[in-house]
Design goal:
Layout: H1 12-22, E1 26-30, E2 36-40, H2 41-57, E3 65-69, H3 74-85, E4 89-92, H4 99-109, E5 113-116, H5 121-127, E6 136-139, E7 155-157, H6 158-163, E8 179-184, E9 194-198, H7 199-210, E10 222-225, H8 232-235, H9 237-244, E11 247-250, H10 257-267, E12 271-274, H11 276-288, E13 298-301, H12 308-318, E14 321-327, E15 334-337, H13 349-356, E16 361-362, E17 367-371, E18 386-391, E19 413-421, E20 427-432, E21 437-439, E22 442-444, H14 446-454, E23 459-469, E24 473-482, H15 490-495, E25 509-512, H16 526-532
Parallel strand pairs: 1-11, 3-4, 3-5, 4-8, 5-6, 6-7, 10-11, 10-12, 12-13, 13-14, 24-25
Antiparallel strand pairs: 1-2, 8-9, 14-15, 15-16, 17-18, 18-19, 19-20, 21-22, 23-24
Helix pairs in contact: 1-2, 1-9, 2-3, 7-9, 10-11
The structure holds adenosine monophosphate (AMP).
């Protein structure tokens, strides 16, 4: 056996490290109240220790689930460390889920306490009677903002708990495989499923995601995670920023283009991360005001495919590089990132761009393969599509309290995505398997069709779905939201596919709508669109 120290990898060690080495680095938060709060990693560590003592006084024990309903802010960050660091499990609830789903997951998780931002006061009032295991609720605010009357049982004030607690606290040592965090999938079909991360998986993910060809996190960056702390741990930013000493800027509830722009400029943000719809909002704001960015260089984009047209606009007009990533709740979330290798740098710009539009290469630690429906591995030739499977130390092997339901197939996690992988290992998602359009027995990739539509200057949002066809089973239908004041005809859009995709991939028809349904994590809900258009008939049928 090797003779090195067997020191467990625990989440508390990250905030201790940040305190000792980057103690004066700032954490800046836009609060629910609208004002800006700023303090340091050292302050955060101190208050996390106070909160850890408060949790102990409330009787929270090792392994207990403690829920949060909160935006990205400093108190939420303190809870990330106080709860997990003391051995309990932070259960980050997505407040955008349907209230019935929230009650379902709070009961399924057997949450003992719920911490919430005041934004969610009425939601908590509605839910409290249904949450059977919850012993108390803590409003994440100071005394002066506490509601005068409320129906919430055992309602406490966050700042009162902090004030009453000592900052003398020794972070406990325990098995690194202990559960640290619980996050439920968005559950667009059926009930949400709980993914239970461990201290070990979280730390390994934080290390790996910081690497230069991953998120390239460092002490020279000022990072703004727009991706919510209630959705897959804000892609690990609350861990990787203090691990590397990056200044952390937390946007609170204000995720519109104007508020983000203001924060980016005021705080000198260098890079940010979030889903495509957020970056569309920022782009529109910058375009309207003819604005430029002074410090902003990079956006890590994922959660849904990044439209190539948006990538080009950000680079050419604003000098901001969009880095395409792919992952999922079950993967903590990082799976792949798209960055170039040294030998790509001599390629013409359009060939580099074609690579950068893919979802990218795996981050070391994750292994992937594509398989056919019988489970046989398919070649990496960049054209053959297959079901994407992954494995790795930060990939889930089962769901919370569903340990007997076999999730893995021969030790691999089936992602539910359909992808190609090229000979250099660059993966490209063509579809969710349930969104694949099957025409005459052949697959048509809806993402590629959407990207062509999104390249038209009049198109704001695009979704491509399969609709019934008597001869071909399914044909692609394009559903479009136009930009305000812009116009484009059906024929013009359909003609724009000429020479861009195989002719039989060209959508059969276009439907113009005012908006597209968006789910709890900011993604366009195709099953909802299919539902809305279930009576739609193609012109030829
Ligand atoms: P979630 O667990 O809610 O984060 O959703 C994960 C799913 O989002 C993946 O399985 C993909 O279907 C989709 N997804 C994430 N990133 C991308 C991306 N860059 N391109 C296309 N789809 C993506």
């Amino acid at each position: 056996m090797g003779q090195m120290m067997n020191q467990p990898m625990l989440i508390s060690s990250i905030i201790q490290h940040a305190d000792r080495h980057f103690g004066r680095k700032e954490i800046v938060s836009r609060r629910v109240e609208g004002d800006i709060h700023r303090y340091t990693y050292r302050d955060c560590h101190k208050r996390a220790r106070q909160m850890a003592n408060a949790l102990g006084n409330l009787g929270v024990a090792m392994g207990d689930r403690v829920a949060t309903l909160a935006w990205n802010g400093y108190r939420h960050l303190e809870l990330y460390y106080a709860i997990s660091g003391s051995g309990a499990v932070i259960h980050t609830i997505n407040p955008r889920l349907h209230p019935e789903q929230i009650a379902y997951i709070a009961n399924h998780a057997e949450d003992t306490y719920v911490f919430f931002d005041l934004t969610f006061l009425h939601l908590v009032e509605t839910l409290a009677a249904q949450c059977r295991s919850v012993k108390g609720y803590i409003a994440m605010t100071e005394r002066s903002n506490m509601p005068a009357v409320s129906t919430i049982p055992n309602l406490m004030c966050y700042e009162d708990l902090i004030e009453a607690s000592s900052d003398r606290y020794e972070w406990p040592t325990f098995d690194e495989n202990s559960a640290s965090t619980l996050c439920y999938t968005s559950g667009t079909t059926g009930n949400p499923k709980g993914v239970l991360y461990s201290h070990r998986s979280t730390i390994l993910h934080a290390y790996a995601s910081s690497m230069p060809d991953a998120l390239n996190m460092s002490g020279r960056e000022v990072v703004l995670p727009v991706v919510p702390m209630f959705h897959v741990n804000a892609w690990g930013f609350p861990y990787s920023a203090p691990l590397t000493g990056a200044k952390l800027v937390l946007p609170g509830p204000a995720l519109d283009g104007g508020s983000l722009y203001e924060l980016i400029e005021q705080e000198g943000v260098t890079f940010s991360a979030g889903v495509p719809t957020v970056w569309l909002g920022l782009l529109e704001h910058a375009g309207r005001g003819k604005l430029t960015f002074s410090s902003f260089r990079r956006i890590v984009i994922g959660g849904a495919a990044c439209p190539p047209a948006m990538m080009k606009t950000y680079r050419q007009q604003y000098g901001v590089e969009l880095v395409h990533t792919w992952g999922m709740t079950e993967m903590s979330p990082l799976g792949t990132v798209c960055t170039l290798q040294s030998h790509h740098l001599v390629l013409p710009q359009d060939e580099q761009q074609a690579i950068l539009e893919k979802q990218g290469h795996v981050v070391y630690g994750v292994d992937m393969k594509i398989v056919d429906d019988a489970g046989s591995e398919l070649p990496w030739d960049g054209t053959i599509r297959g079901n994407l499977y992954v494995r790795g130390p930060w990939v889930a092997k089962s769901y919370f309290k569903a340990e007997n339901g076999e999730v893995l197939q021969d030790g691999w996690f089936p992602t539910g995505d359909v992808a190609t992988i090229d000979p250099e290992g660059y993966m490209q998602i063509t579809d969710r398997s349930k969104d694949v359009i099957k025409s005459g027995g052949e697959w048509i990739g809806s993402i590629e069709l959407e990207n062509v539509a999104l390249a038209h200057p009049a198109v704001r949002l695009a979704a491509c779905i399969g609709v019934f066809h008597p001869k071909w089973d399914e044909r692609p239908l394009l559903v479009i939201v136009k930009k305000p004041g812009a116009d484009v005809s059906k024929d013009e859009l359909i003609n724009s596919y000429k020479g861009r995709v195989a002719s039989w991939w060209t959508p059969d028809d276009v439907v113009f709508v005012d908006s597209l349904p968006v789910g709890a994590t900011g993604k366009i809900l195709k099953n909802e669109i299919r539902n809305q258009l279930r009576d739609y008939k193609l012109p030829t049928t």
